[in-house]
Structure formats: C-alpha cells, structure tokens
Amino acid sequence: MSLPERMSLVELINEFFGEPIELPAALVPILENVHQYQNLPAGERLVTARSPGYDDPAQGSPVDAVFIQTKRVGGSGAIGLLLDVQLRFDGSSLALVGEVVPKGAIVFPSLKILCLDRTLNVGEVNQLNGLLAGYGVAARFPVPNAMSADVWPKYFAAAITWQLGGGEMPALSIWLDKDKDDDDEAKEEEEEISFPGLPKSFGPLTIFGVKRGRDKAKDYLRVLLVAELKVGGQVLQLDGLGFMIPLTAKGFVPRPELIGAALSIRRDTPPLTINAALRYTGLGDDAISYGLAGLVRVETPALSVMGAGAWSRTADGHQMIFLYAEALLTSGASLFGPPPFTVTGLAAGFGVNSRMRPPEVAQLPSFPLLARLEEAPKVPGEPPPPPPEPLEVLNDLTSRTGWVRPEAGSYWIAAGLTFTSFRFIETRALAVIEFGNRLNVMLLGRTSITLPKNADASKKVHAQLNIDLRLAFLSEEHKLSLEAAVGPGSFVFTQSAELTGGLAFCVWTGGGRGGDFVITLGGYHPQFNAIKPAYYPNPARLGFRWLPCSRVVVQASGYTALTPGAIMFGAALAARYEKGVLSAWFTAHVDALIQWRPFYLDLALGISIGVAATIKVWFVKVRVSIEVGITLQFWTPPTGGRVSVKVWFIGFSFDFGAGRAGAPPVPWSEFQVQLPSPLRTTPVKGLQPDVDKDESEARTAREAPLLVSTDGFVFETEAVMPSSEISINGEVYATGPTVTIRPMRLTNVTSKHIVTLTRFENGAETEFDPGANDWLLEKIYRDVPRSMWGRVLDKPGDAATEPGLEPGRLSGVRFTVSPPELGAGVGPISSRVFKYEPLEDGDMPLRDGAVAGPAPRPDEASITTIARTLAAEATAQRRTAVHDALARLGAAPGKDTDGLLGHYAELVGRSMTSSPLITDAPASAR
Questions:
Q1: Residue 316: which pLDDT band, with cuts at 50, 70 and 90?
Q2: Residues with Cβ < 8 Å from 64, sequence gap 6 or more?
Q3: Closest Cα to residue 432, out of 553, 322, 318?
Q4: Which DSSP helix (H) or strand (E) runs through 869?
C-alpha cells in the first residue's frame, strides 16, 4: 500500500499500529517527504519522513521521523516510531552564567521521542538500530539506561542526548505516560542524577548533576543543572538553571531557563557559627506564584538555635506563611526541671494556609521538624554526624515534595521539647495539630537510651536503644494509630548485635474502613503479607542480627498480629558459619495462624541443619552440600497434619489424621455477641456545640430532641450487618446482594434496614417525606470483615489467603438537610447610615423609680416551667377566655388565632439556651 508524500503524524501512527493511540496534545506535526521502503522481507515495513518545523518552519527545530515494523527483534517482533528532533542547544546560552561556559563545553544535540508497541530492553533496541543501519537510515533509537530501568516502556517515552567536554553522556530519559502519577513525576524531577566527570567547574560556576522532568500541564520538557555560583565569597545555589523544550506547536525550540537562586551564607568565627539560606520560591512550583523561604542556624558552645520560615503567594491567590524555631542547650545544662526530668530544648511553630504532611514512623529519623531538635543519637567514641546544610532542610520543608505545602483554609501549630530522664534517656517530642480542612493530631517522638548512663569514649557501652514513636489521629484516613519502631544504631552488649523491630496499633473509624483494626508486633504471618490491605502498617520484624566474629552470623526474629479475622504469631532462628570453602547453617521456624468463631488453627514449624564445602576433583571445583530437615504442618478441627522430610537430595512427605475440613457452624446466640450495637444513628455535621449546660441537662431529662443547625445538618443511619435492602417510610430506597454469615455457614440471608422519618407538629406525629423537602439522600457503602460476612469457606485455612475486608457492602443512608435559601443582599451600606444625633439625658415618662414586688431570681428549671405552663390545659382555657372577651368588644386578633399551644411549648425548649429569671407575681395579677 503506497502512502501519500504528505500526511499527519496521527495518520501515520494509526497506519502502523492498527489502533487509535492517544498522542500527547502537542505531537501533531505534518510530516513531509514521506518515503516507504520497498522490497523488504515479509512482515517488515519501513517509512521515513521529515518535518521542517511546526507553526513557523523558519523558527522550528527540524524533525526526522522513522517508522519500522519487523519480526526480527526479540523473537516476537516490534513496531516503533522515532521522532529525532535537532535541538542544538549550547550551554554558552544558559541564563546568568552562559558567559563563563565555553562554547561547546556543554551541548544538548537532540531530543528523541519514541513510541513502541511493547516494552523493549537494551538488546532489543540494539537489534532495532542494527536493522536501521542495514537499510542506510541514519536515525537511531536511544538506548535505555539506568534512568529508565534499562527498558523503554510501551507507547511514549523521550530521551535527550548531551555531551560534556566533547564526551557523550548517558541520555536523559523522561517518561511521557499521560497516566503517570503526579507524585511520581514530581519525584522524578526532584531527583538529582550524577554522572562521571561531574562535578565540573567553569570559573566561578560548578555543575554537580542534572535533573529532568515535565511541567504539571505536560506542555514542555525540562533539563535542569544542579549548580552553584560563587560571588563575593558567598555561594549562590542556582535553582532551575537549564532550558525547557516546548511540546506545543512551537517547533521544539529550546529556551534557556533560570527558575530562581538560593543564597547560602556561612560565617565561622569561633565561638560563633552562623549558617543561613534564603531562596526564592514559586517558579517551577505550580502551587506557588512567588515567595521566599529562609532558614538560619546559630551555634555557640552552649546553645544552638535554628529558625525556619516561608511566605508565599499561592497560585489560587491566598497567602501562605509558616514559622518554626527551636533552641537547644549543647553543653549538658538544662533549661529547667528536676534531675528525673530536665528540659534541654524547646521548639514551636505554626502555619497559616499551609498543611503539614503527616510523617510515617519510619520517616521520623529524617523528618526536619523532629530530627533537627538535636543531632541524631551517636555511638560514644565516634564523631557526631555533621548537621544538614540549611538548603537541604529548606528543600525538605518547602519543595514540591516537601513536608509543608500551601493549602487554603488549612492551619497547624507545633510545640516540642527535648529532655533527659535520669541522665541516660534522651527524648525529643513534638506535638502537631492541624485543623481547618481536616483534623490531624500527632505526637511524634524519638528516644535514645544508653547504658550505662553518661557513657563516654572511655567507657564501654553495654546497650543503646533508639525508638521512634508516632501517636496520631488522622481525620482524612479515619484512623487512630500508635506506632513505634526501633531506630538505626540500636544494639545490646556489643555494636555487632543490631536490634530491629516495630509495633503498630491502628483503628479505622470510617471512610469505607470503619470497624477494621490491626495490632501487630513485628509484622505478619508470611501468607498474610501477600494479601493484607495496602493501608495496614508494615513494622519490621522484632529481633536481632549478631556477628560474634567475621565468620558467624546469628539472626532471630519474631512477630504477632491480631486482625478482625485472625490472630497470628511466629518466630525464626538462623545461624550461619562461613570460612573459605566450608559453610554450615542451622534454621528453625514456627508460624501459627488462628481463626476463631469458628475456631481453626494452622501451625507450621520446621528445623534444618546443613553443611557445604567446595572440593576440587582433578581440575574441576565441585560444590557439595548435605542438608537434613523436617517440617510439620498441623491443623484442627478436625485434627490432621502433614510431615515433610528432607535428607540430602531425598525428600518425601506423608499426611496423618483428618484432611482439611470445615468447622461446624456457630449458632446465632454465639454469633451475635461478636456484634457491636446493631444500629446507630450518628449526627455528622450541624450539632450545636454551644448549648448551655443547664439547657442540655433539662432537654435530656424530658427526652427532648437534639439542638442542631438548620444550615447543613447531616446525619447517618447505619447497621452493623450489611443490608440487602434499605427502605424509607415503607418504600424501597436501595438494594444490595444477599448476606452471608460465615461463622453460621448461612448464605442468601435477607437483611432489611428499615428507616422511618416522622414529624411532630401541633402535638401530632405525621410521616415526613425527605425527598419532598429537598433533603439529599446518599447510600453508604463500607468494607466489612470477611471473617463475619465473607463467603463460606470449605477450608477455614483459606482465610489466610484472602483480604481481611469484603469491599463495598451496602450499610446505611446519609441524610443531608437542605440549607435555608438566603434572600438577595441589601448591597453596600455607607457609613452615613450609622451616624446618630445624641439626646440629652432625661427621665422616662410614667416611670416610677420605687421598687415594687419581689426581686427576680435565677431558676434552673425556668425553661421547663415555661414549657409546662404553656402546654397546660388551664393556660389554654384562660387564653380562650381573653380571646372571647376581645371578640365581644370587636377587637379579636382574627380568625384561627386561638390555636393549640403545644408547639409553642416545644419551641421554648428549642429556642431558649439560657434559663430566664423568674419572680412571684402579686396576688392581684393571678
């Protein structure tokens, strides 16, 4: 099939790939000089084309295009497109520093964009280029390298070639996947890549590495040099020095770019050391328009002070600010406190229109607001680790992937202490509260225990334990958690006996995970690891690794965990000896998984001993190994098991007892005790938090309804059992699948969730239609424990190979009361409206200044008294008598004005929040 000499890139791609492929929006050039090669082997096609540019051929970068389809690559064939764009960007045109870079010292010759029908590795790309060379085509597909994991992905990717000092450097690979996660792209752009030959200096300019990536809108590619410029004895960190390549219809013309500069200042005049950094933020950060971030650290022999802060104008027009400061005594002195608890440092900070990303417990050693309270715990006798550079701390805090980011309506405050207990326990603690858009409450801590206390370089340290702790409530995740981890540098008796481990206790209260929980010390059963929910914590195995000498390694580990469906525990011990050609080992393990209601136990344990040696037979080295081991797996009920034996190269197994069978069903009387409250109605939003205590108690005493706001009241009704049908006022609102009760071995159970809404008006109860009153109704779906509501298992042990939760089961309804409709505004009001003319003081007419009657007095029951009096029959009769008297005089208020008073009594209870004063009326008025 012949091709026209001029066609679009989209048309040519569809011709080759045989399916519509969604191109990046910019890649829509018109290709000219389309040439299809003839007389090729069967199943092979080759087309070349050229584009002089995009909108303006005189200004655009020329593009050579190659399309190839072959069956001679990797045994399965491949289809590939290559756009070879001639950039010809020279480092001497860089912004600000171009004049110090010799012409030709740093060159970026070309951009290569490729599209493949499958993943290709290095060898397959070389095969493809060999075919092109055989056909006399000059263009070559770029060879993947470590930056792309030594493969090119299916569909689109890009590579920018570059040369340093005349030498070819590995191409800079950039992913063009439109579905790639934004966080991954941000991480890619933040990653600094170092190459052989770097750092490289050109006078005052030094280049340390390269970064590459895309902007958030994906309209252009970026190449940024990690560089610094020395000016007047100070160092300027050049932020975003490089160039950008537009992918829009502008001809791929590279444009020099300098995002900003960061100033780093160091003044070291003992006994005073000052480190400071200041950087301009915003450019290159899609969330910030402009702003400043700074940090200063002052150190003396007795005191270390650090302060950090930032102000930014966000892209959505808000002002973001945060400040943080800490002070730490470095001489062993204390600020205050008795010997059991002496405070040596303080820290505090706040943020406005900013949010703080909650750190995981494993991230605490590198969390800037905690790790900078003092130096990391160190082994006595070794020099302390150098403090981080100020710019490193600023990047950790305020970069695109930093801990503190702008967010309108979000606020946080932090306060911290550094203290010692009994002179051998050192603790750093930081409390953080974030509110506004969410409620996050965190207590973060790092503790170091050294034995014996006050150990120094001249004393032997018997043990050191570093513990990281996080206690947190995170409203977005609906999670309350307590997590702890044994930090690096922990040992006992000797530094070669390293300690590891962690624990976690997490409870989820909603968000589709309500009712789920996990308690784990050291992790999970090996089978459970493969199917545990992704949001479960991952503490390290509890144990140690001991090297008594260079030839022996001893390791021990253990774990236990409790989830809604099972409890598990296990331990392992291993020892290995290596010396030259000889090695020997010993391993033992036990793993147990227990399911309850119905009870089921799966226990596995084993032991193995082996030895291996390398011997020389004539001129050939042979590795000979002998291993003896036995493994027992036991289950109940019914009781049975399997034994596996290995002796050298012989292995066999045999079963005993009963096979794996299901446990008997549980009766309802036993199952229902596992359930919490079967039904709950929960106010979610709109409760009145400022109700007077007395009023609240009075309302509770007479069982009056809650006081709520008419603007945005939301409540939910949920059942602990999944629902197969939800009805409201007798009409079916939602349906779901039938319910299975696993412990009872019941299937196809119909579970009806019945909701009745009524209105109390004029003392009468009537049905209330939420739809007719513009209420918003939403179905609630929750993940429920499979141990209770999952499918019935033929083998209870199969529970270990399935997720712990059954996803998306119908559980209830959320009701949102429609807010009041606000009328039109009155418009602007001038200050003249509030002007007044003062009047002279005078006496009120008809005023008798003498005190008459008993004085008013407070009475906690006055609201109840008013409501009871209004609802009394005698009150209604007196009111009717007054109404009749007015009618006889021709002054009646009107028709239907003498109604029931019960609703007024209810209104008193809802409207009065403070008890009115009461007094005794004179007899003449009764």
A1: confident
A2: 48, 49, 50, 83, 84, 86, 138, 139
A3: 322
A4: helix 862-871
How do residues 604-634 score in pLDDT, each as one tens digit? 999 999 888 887 777 677 777 888 899 998 8
Q: Taking the CA atoms of the chain, what radius of gyration do you get in angstroms?
A: 38
Strands 319-329 and 63-70: unpaired
Distance CA 642, CA 659 (A): 9
How far apart are the C-alpha atoms of 168 and 162, rounded to whole Å? Answer: 6
pLDDT tens by residue, 814-832: 898 887 776 766 777 777 7
Alpha-carbon distance of 775 to 251, in angstroms, equals 55
User: Which amino acid, one-letter code, is at 856?
Assistant: P
54 closest CA partner among 29, 88, 84, 34:
29
The Cα 137–Cα 36 span in angstroms is 12
Contacts of residue 534, defined as CB under 8 A and 6 or more positions apart, other chains included, come to none
* Beta carbons of 888 and 835 less than 8 angstroms apart: no
Query: Of all residues in the chain, what percent are helix, strand and coil, respectively (each to 5)?
Result: 15, 45, 40
- Percent of the chain past pLDDT 90, that is, above it, reads 13
DSSP codes of every residue in 681-706: EEEEE-B-TT--HHHHHHHHHTTPPP
Under DSSP, the state recorded for 478 is: T
Domain-wise residue ranges, the chain: 7-195, 677-816, 862-925
**Omega prior to 638 cis, within 30 of 0:** yes
> How do residues 855-865 score in pLDDT, each as one tens digit?
888 888 888 88
- DSSP H stretches of helix in 710-861: 786-789
Q: Which two tokens stand for residue 385?
A: 């680790």
- Which candidate, 856, 343, 805, places its Cα nearest to that of 535? 805
Report whether pLDDT(376) > 50: no
- Structure tokens that stand for 15 in this block: 């011709």
Distance CA 107, CA 206 (A): 16
Q: Which of 317, 313, 397 is nearest to 357 (CA)?
A: 397
- Residue linked to tokens 């809650």: 706
Helix (H, G, I), strand (E, B) or coil at 68: strand
pTM of the model: 0.60
Contacts of 98 (CB under 8 A, 6+ apart): 91, 92, 256
CA distances (Å), origin 682, targets 361, 679, 706, 813: 32, 10, 12, 11
Q: Give the integer Cα–Cα distance in Å for 636 and 662.
A: 10
Tokens of 447: 């503790």
pLDDT digits (tens, 9 = 90+) for 266-312: 777 788 888 888 887 776 677 888 888 899 989 888 888 889 999 99
Q: What is the sign, positive or negative, of the torsion defined by CA atoms of 655, 658, 661, 666?
A: negative
